[in-house]
Structures are given as C-alpha cells and as structure tokens.
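Please predict the structure of the following assembly.
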Amino acid sequence: MAFQILRKTIHLLFQTTSSLFYGFSFAIIASSLMKIKLDIMKKIIFIFLSLIIVLSTANAQKGINFSRKYPAGGKLLMCVDSSAKNVFYAHVFPNQPHTFFSYLPEVNKVSIQIYFRKDINVHSYRYTILADNKPIAVNKPIDIAQLKDVTAGDEEIFSSTSLGIFSIKGKIITTLIYSIEKPQDIDKSVFYGKPIPRAKIQGFSKRFKTDKGVDYKWITHPKGRTNLTFTNKDDELTIVKDKSDIDYLYYTTIKDKQSNKIIFESTVWQYGGLVEEHEFLPNIKVDKNVFKKSGDYEIIIQPLIKWTGCLDCDFSQKDIEKYTTRYTLSITLDEENYTRKELLIYTLIVAFSIGFIFLAILYFNKKRNKKKLAENEQQKNIAKLQLNSIRSQLNPHFLFNALSGIQNLMNKNEVDNANKYLSKFARLTRNVLDDKELIGLSQEKALLDDYLQMEQLRFGFKYKINHSQDLELDNIEIPSMLLQPFVENAVKHGISQKATNGEIIITFVKHANNLVLTVTDNGNGFDTEKKNKGLGLSLSDSRIELLNSIYKENRFILAIQSTTMGTKLSLTLTDWL
Amino acid sequence: MMRAVLIDDEISNLENLRTLLQKYCPQVTIIATAQNVSDAVNTIEKYLPDLVFLDIQMGKQTGFDVLKLLPTRNFEVIFVTAYDQYGIQAIKFAALDYLLKPIDIEELMNAVNKAEHKSATQIQISQLDFLLQQLKKPETNMSKIALQMQSEIRYVTLSEIIRCEADNTYTHFFISSGEKILVSKSLKEYADLLRPSGFLRTHQSHLVNPKYVKSWLKEDGGVLLLISGEKIPISKPNKDTVKQALQQL
C-alpha cells in the first residue's frame, strides 16, 4: 500500500516539476522531504536504486561499486568505493535550493554520471568541475557522442554519460552544471572528501541603546565559557562564526542548560558588518528576550547533516561530536524575564502555598480550638454535673425542712421519733457525702426508704418500694443516687399537694438482661413536652447523658409518661444484668 | 399582745412554730394558720393579724405571692424559710426580718421582740412595697437598698454609696451627698449583699463602690484614692481581686 502511494508521489513529483529533465530533480525533492519523511526517503531511494542496479552492472569498474548509486544533486548520480561506509549524500540547505552537498569521509574515488530526459536540449548544457577550487574542466559542453540510452525502470529512456571518476580522498570535488538557456540556475554539487571543519565562534557582541541609536560591545575569540551581563539597555546578542566555503552547512542552536531545552535555533547566516581578510563573516542575531533567566546557556554549532538513520551510515554520538562546536554563555540578567507560563506557574505555586499554609493554619487552629473547647466543655460538664448531682441528690430545701421536722418532733416531746428521724437524716447525709460511684441495689433501696420517710414527715403520703424476686439486691450495683432525683420530683411535683392521699410506688424489675427502675406517683402530672421541665428533670437528662458517655456498653433509657392521674417514670439500664 | 397568723405548707413546720411560740413568745397569740397561698390571703383578710410568719417556698408558689395578692398590708412580717438564696437576698435589701429553719429560738425571740416594739408600722409597709419591687428585678440589678437606722428606714440608691466602713458591729455608709449613715449591722453582711452589685471589699473594715475610685496608689503596698480624696487601704489578701475587678471596669 505504502509502496503504491510512494510511486504515485514520485510520478506526481516528476510531472509537476518545472524542470524539463527527468534528471535527478527527484533527489532534490526527496532530500527536502528528508527531514520529515526519512522512512519514505529510504524507500524512494531503494526503489530508485533497484532500477539503477539493472542499468549499471555493465559499467562495473574495479574499486567503485556501480551497483550502489546515490543521488548527488542536480542531474547527477554518483557511485563510490565498494568498501565505503558513511555516505551522506545530496543534502539540500535552507535558502540554497541548487546547492547539494555529499559528505564522503571514507571514499577514495567517486564516479559521477549525468542523466538527461529525452526532450532536453543536451547541447545547451555546460559543466564545470573543480578539484579543491581548482578548475579541471570549465564550461565544457556535454560530449554528445558519449551519450547512451538507458532506461529508468519504466518506459522512459534517458540519455546519460559519465563526467568522470575522481579521486576524492582529502579533496573537494565541485560540479557546476547549467543550461546556457538559463544560465542563472546553476546546480552546484559538492563532494566533500575532507573532514568537515568544526565551526569556530569569532566573537559575541551585545547591542545596547545609546543617545544616538545603538552601539555594540564586543567579546572576540571567546573561550569555552563566556560571562555576559544583560542590562536594561542591551537588546540583542550577535554570534559571529568564522568564514568557510560551506557556511550554509552549519546551523546554530541555543540550549538552556538548566531546563535542557532548546530555546533558539537558526539555519540562516547573515553577512555584513564584520569583515575579516576582506570577507564578510557569517553571523546570527539573537534577541535578548530569548534568555528568560540568568544562568548557563550552551551555544551549539554543527553541520546540518542527518548523521543517523541514513542508508549507509553508522555514526555514533562521539563521531558527531567531532563536528560539533559548543560554547557556554553564562548570562546574568539585571531584570529577570519570566515567560507567561512560568509566571503563571510561579504565581499559582505561591498562591497555592499561601493558600495551603493559610488553610493548614486555619485547620489546625480550628482543630485546636475545637479540641480545647470540647475539653473545656467536657470538664465543665463533668464538674457541673458532679456539683449539680451533689446538689440534686439532696436539695437544701429538703435538708432544712427535714431538720425542721425533727425539731418539731423534739418540741412535741416525741423523743423516740426524733431519734429515729435524726439517724435517718444522718444516714442520708452520710451517703451523699460518701459520693460513691456505684451503690448496691439494697443500699439504694434503704436510702430511698430513709429519704421517703423523711419526706413523709413533711407531707404524710404513702409509698411502696417493690422489687422482683429474681433480683439479687445485694449483688447488683447501680450508679449511686440514680433514682433519688426522680423520687424527689415525685414528692415535690407529684404528691406534695395531695397530702395523705398521695402515693409513690418504686419498683426494681428484671427484664431479660435489662434492669428497669420505675417511679410512679398519683399526683397531677405534668406536660412532658414542656421545655422547662423542673430543674430536677433537666438535671436527670444531663446526668443520663453523662452516664451514657461513661457506660458506653450499656444504655440508660429514660421514659416518662404523665397524665392528670399521675406520672410514671421508668429508667432502663440495658444489658446491665 | 400580738395576734399572729402562721403560714407554711408543711404541717410539721406549723406545729413546730406553734410549739416554739407558745413556749418562748407568750406575747404572741396564734389566731390562725394556713397551708397555701389562697388560704393565707383569706385568713389574713379575715383576721387582720398584727404579725404574720410567712414561709417563702410553698409548693409551686411563694410567700411573696401572698403579699402581692393583699391590697393592704397592715401587719409585721417575719419570713421563715428553709433555703432560698434569692428570696433572702431581697429580704436583706429591704432590711426585713427572716428566720431560717430549723428555727433558732433566740432569733425567733429577737424577731418577735423587734416586731412588737416597732412603733411606726408604716415603715414596714413601705419596706414590703420595696421588697416586692426588688423581686421584680434580676438578682444583680438591685438598684436600691433599705438601710435600717434607729428611728427610720432610708432607701439609698446603690450608685450614691461611696463606701462603707465597719465600726464594730455597726456600719457607716458614706453617701455622695456627704451624709454619713450608721446602720446596726456588720460590714460583712453588707459586703455579701453588695458584692454582686460590684462593690469591692478592699479591707476587713472597708467596702468601696468602684464608681468612686480615682486611682490605685502604690504607697504602703496599695491604697485606693477615691474621687473624694479619701484614701482607702487595701489589705494583702484582697489585692489581687481588687486589682482584677478594677481592670475590668
């Protein structure tokens, strides 16, 4: 498939070319494509060569491999030594459409043939051959008698002749071919048998603004490393190369050593301004803004030859390095230039880091505050509840009224009763002062008994404390003073108004693994939905919350049912038994 | 001979008070008792007693409610309470008498004696009015205090009091008008009473209204200079609290 497309491309190119000859305009086009389509190029050449092989076997000559034909630019083909490797052929250069360059470092002899299409007027062609710039032949017409008909694979027949076999080792053979009908279009093919010289930087110059215009500051014959400072006034850097016959061969790149990125590339040399030995020196101009940052930059000048990937080359990086010139420019910018992208990135980085730090501070602050707050809150809660629990366990109103009741017994001369109630009072107070975490159920029962009897002294109601038989009252412990606040509520809000008709029933019941404690009174009840429950009840709520946070395995569930007929409160200690 | 009504929601308290009065205060005749607010109002209106023993906390209502419901109050009141901080505070501000349960016999006799010898009943009536007014306000917002002098009751705005100074069991009040009032109660009592209103106990014998403090002098380890030019000593244990309180102003 690819093959067919190639053939079509070739045909198309042949047809559209303005050249009248079949010639090897093909090679020109192909080599200009080379950069882009190296693979294609290989195949094109291969196709072409396979055609040539058939044509040229008869012309075989010792030392030169006529089976290997290379395009050599213009209308030329060349054959080189059978042993020669690294044949870099027919390079075309920017702005030099008629100059072809073949680098033949390992070739001893080269044979050059010229091919004409049948419709070309061969008579008008002239050729010049130079060996090391000395003419061997000058403006010679083509020897028509030597022309032979050869085919190029398809029907078309070409007229071809040899321009000669040349010794190339250490030499440069140059051919110039033109038609007298179009003397300006000279096809120049250079066969380079010498090593390509390394380029040399003759000088750097900085252009700066002055009152009158601009002026230049020079650094001539720089060493491998040059320091350069750009101030505000400087605007341009000029790099001057040494003069050679093949300036067009060299191209320049500038690499940022920090990022290892190529920031500048130029294949074009300018002439003028600088003269050495009556000749203009090639130079390139680089805008200051190419250098965005202070730092080291590498200026690399090397031949514009595709060293690798060609048909007959085997070139290592080390070999290539022989042809490469490297200079380091250490540039200091008075004012750092940043690209928009860099600026954006830096801005973003700074913004993000500030943002991040800010967020982090905020987060940790918040966390710390929260923790502190929670700690404070908890401590406060605990302290408050502990304090409140002591207060709520026996409220002072009860305390002093109870004492008043005892005083009454004394004043009535009921000494026995006064003794009895005084010891009950003492027992109650002692229990409160003990401040135990847990208390046996039997003890709790006795406590409530004492408490209710004291309250009975004040209000004269009835009460009962019942428990289910399967409860071992002595062995089961509950948080101390758990029920007292509820019982107190039952007395205060439940039956204190009912005098002797009042009744309070307390039960301890086992429900599976749960312990259920209930306090029932036959008072007038209250609205359980009401927000401001009595102080006693809201305390109980917070106390139960605290208990739930302490006894995480168990849950304390408080349920209150209240009607006008009475109130039933039940406290379930789940999985307590 | 004083005709008395006893009001308390607990029967045992009534019994107790009756026994004590009969035994220690023969000049008092108990003409009726009541166990709730409405009964109390009716009883008082019916018997027009000279003296009322009034329990403050009565179930969900208070003895103050009884006073509020009476259109006229031509009687002496002795409050009786087991525990009622706010009520007692207000009673103290009004310089009225109260008894704490269980009842101290000596205090009972004193209170009854005082009531018996109070010639101008009118004074207490205004004291009761004052008390009821005070009760409408939150605790820290008491703006006036009743000062019991020998023959009269003076109602003094707290902001008028520059300072108080102890004189044994008596207390001198220095008023911004330049007047000096002697009250037969200890400074400690007034210190407790006026501390919630911002008064500073700088010294065992001195209570100062911070409003009248000009500066803190460093001489002698700390002295308060008042706007009036008087210098009030600050005792060592009170230094920090006084300093803190003054900084917060």
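Chain A has three domains: 2-192, 201-333, 427-573. Residues 35 and 306 of chain A are 8 Å apart (CA to CA).
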